[in-house]
Amino acid sequence: MRSKKELCLKIKSLKIKIIQTSNEKGKNHPLTIQISQKLDKLINEYMKLTQHK
After folding, report:
1. 1, 22, 24, 43 - which has most CB atoms within 10 Å?
2. Smallest Cα–Cα separation from 2: which of 32, 41, 31?
3. What are the DSSP E strand ranges found in 4-43?
């Protein structure tokens, strides 16, 4: 399991990446959607981690 700090860093990194990809390729581009799905999973993992403690 990842730590909260590690998850926060990955979430911040993906937020930057999704903005860049969205600006370059568009919001409905498959790569933008793929990054969005990864971001959702990380946010869900973070929420589960913080709710249990």
Report:
1. 22
2. 41
3. none
